[in-house]
Amino acid sequence: MNFGYFDEQKREYVITNPKTPTSWVNYLGTSDYCLIISNNASGYSFYKSPKLGRVTRFRFNSIPMDRPGRYVYLKDEKTNDFWSISWQPVGKPLDKFLSICRHGLGYTIFESKYNSIISSLKIFVPVDKPLEIWEVKIKNDSNEKKEFSVFTYTEFCLWNSMLDMMDFQYILYTCRMGYNKEDEIIDYSIKLWSPYEPKAFFTCANKKIESFDTDRDVFIGPYNSESNPEAIKNGKCFGSIAIGGNPCAATQVKIELQPGQEEYLVFLLGIGNAYKEGREYKKIFASIDSVEKEFKKVQEYWKERLNKFECNTQDEKMNLMLNIWNQYQCHTTFNWSRSASFIEAGGRDGLGFRDSSQDILGVVHSIPQEVRRRLIELLKAQLSEGYAMHHFQPLTMSQGKHNIPPRERIYSDDHLWLLIAVPAYIKETGDFSILDEIVEYADSGSASVYDHLKQALEFSWNNRGKHGLLLGLAADWNDCINLKDGGESTWSTQLYYKALSEFIDLAEYIGKTDDVEKYKKYRDEIKRALEEFTWDGEWFVRGYLASGKKLGSKESEQSKIFLNSQSWAVFSGAFLDEKGKTAMDSVKKYLATEHGCVKNWPAYVDYIIEVGAITSFPPGLKENAAIFCHANTWVIIAEALLGRGEYAFEYYMSFLPANKNEIAEIYTAEPYVYSQFITGKEHPYYFGRARNPWLTGTATWAFTAATQYILGIRPHYNGIIIDPCIPSSWDGFEVKRIFRGKKLLIKVLNPEHVSKGVKKVIINGKEIKSNLISEALLDEENVIEVIMGL
């Protein structure tokens, strides 16, 4: 069954049944202010930091679901009946209550109809202002006059999210609520030892506030909940001022509606002083035109970011994801990394080094300048020895505060992602100047970006084990595998091979011949080690444990084959041969399912301390034989590089969220964004159930796999390559793309119905002899025709 549908024209996902299996959320905001909101109006907001700047409160993993959030209640003064515009928290019977939620790009709209009253609540965050706007419309669709009280409610978090959840003996005695009577604005402040101590406010911008509460316990009342607040039953708020306790922002506004009449209200929740910023914003947004103007800026913001790439393929779901939702998710992960969702409570905010290095791949075509700034931030978190801080906080680093990791917390892969990220930026933009920029290391000294890259390669070269493979150190990409104390990682070694190849190509292009020769020798030695020590007959082993035992081998006592060491054998470029094909055939044979490829097989059943935390999960969950969506994207790339378009597309569709809309009761998570993992085939009950949506590297790699390897449009230092690998049944496809400021209309025709192979390329009416189109050949606007064939 499904719970909603895609509205492609409006770029919305429309939820028609609010009883979704899990909370289906949206992210609103662009930079400093972020709001996460579910289809039932629950969720939280934060300013700059989800850990130290949490504005509103949310109860994670709670019963009932979706509490609390930002709620607007309507109370009929004649009947005393009340409801919320969003179905929850009041939860009227759905046979009498029409409820629709529209998640759009940068906004969410709730629409309802109950007892002949039509209402809507639109919530969005302006592009350049630290506040959220609640736009309410109420229409009387009956034949009689109606009088209403409109109540609003949201619960403040006490800024520090971890203290707010754990240290009640302290945190519950810190808030200082107030009320600006002259301007009718609730004032919220608290004093903590955070890097900054923001204040917040709440108000109605265009109507008189009749009553208010700032103390949650007074507004809700003892033994009540958000579904039946005492103030609403009472008919007015109590005027409470919380000095200590649980702060909230609750207001009452009264309206009268004649038959057919519609009323419009605007509520503001923002960062700032009620007597300064609150007063200024209230004045600005008292005008309906100002609110509409701000909303149009949000729409233009997203239009600008998504119009850099648009495709028209023979699969509507692929189009839907690539043109709208996949790109939207890529920007969300770029903005917020992995710290703020309904799954991550915000306790480790900041940037994960490997996460953020990968996240840029999905947005570099759209926001190259922001990507450049992010790269410099990442390079500042690299240490002079070459490795990187696994996790860092740009807010504190900008104040010169570095949390340098101890040696035992060095990861074998973090720093190597720079060799993927920096070349990707240069290929997209042609901006080689970044290589000469001097960037300081996190510990001491500074170097050019080019030398930062070399130092990353040197660190890995100097940290190899007895088989010549990279030491796993604290962990490689799979943090739950124990490769400490001399354990070696096949996958990190494959990533290193890819990193060396990327650097060699870059050095060769800019004429650094000495470096080319040096690192080719490194690469040859790495290839020899991979050949000699990782091939297991049908697939590549995952690595070696500290004891010397093979991990992911026919010889292993439990799990015998791992996904990443097969896909990266090909993706790295090390094994574009029969061994690579055999390894990928083993993926098909042992790991592939209708929902994607499991991470390893068979699942671990017994805990093995030497193998690590992967063995602590039940079969089919997380790292233990789940379908890790991030890892599945590399399978697509590997098959495309091998020219097997049917397999590449089959794997792409197997875990595509839009492909799960009709089985949402099984999939459970949002069908418009990728999840971290899907429960694997060896789980006894929940095969096909998705978990941990939104903030996952799956987003950027799914976009990269589909656009650069299936559709085959890949930036190059000298221009752009067009090398599709598609299902042979396709007649072709079209792509509109902005590349280095120039418009490309790419028309691919497949008359011979092949999966791979370019026979002819025509640019602006002139045939060229290569599928690498030099930037020198590009005009401001270009029509590129590509004929596939053998």
Task: List key phrases describing it.
single chain; 790 residues; alpha+beta; Beta-galactosidase, Chain A, domain 5; Glycosyltransferase; 4 domains; ten-stranded antiparallel β-sheet; six-stranded antiparallel β-sheet; 20 helices; 28% helix
Tell me what you see in this structure:
- One of its GO terms (biological process) is carbohydrate metabolic process.
- This is Glycosyltransferase 36.
- It comes from Caldicellulosiruptor obsidiansis (strain ATCC BAA-2073 / JCM 16842 / OB47).
- Residues 11-280 form the Glycosyl hydrolase 94 supersandwich domain.
- The protein is α+β, with helices and mostly antiparallel strands and 790 residues long.
- The protein folds into 4 domains: 71-304, Distorted Sandwich (Beta-galactosidase, Chain A, domain 5); 352-533, Glycosyltransferase (Alpha/alpha barrel); 543-706, Alpha/alpha barrel (Glycosyltransferase), CATH 1.50.10.10; 713-788, Maltose phosphorylase, domain 3, CATH 2.60.420.
- Helix content is 28%, strand content 26%.
- The chain has 20 helices and 42 strands.
- Helix 17 (629-641) packs parallel to helix 20 (698-710).
- The radius of gyration is 28 Å and the shape is globular.
- The model has no long low-confidence stretch (mean pLDDT 95).
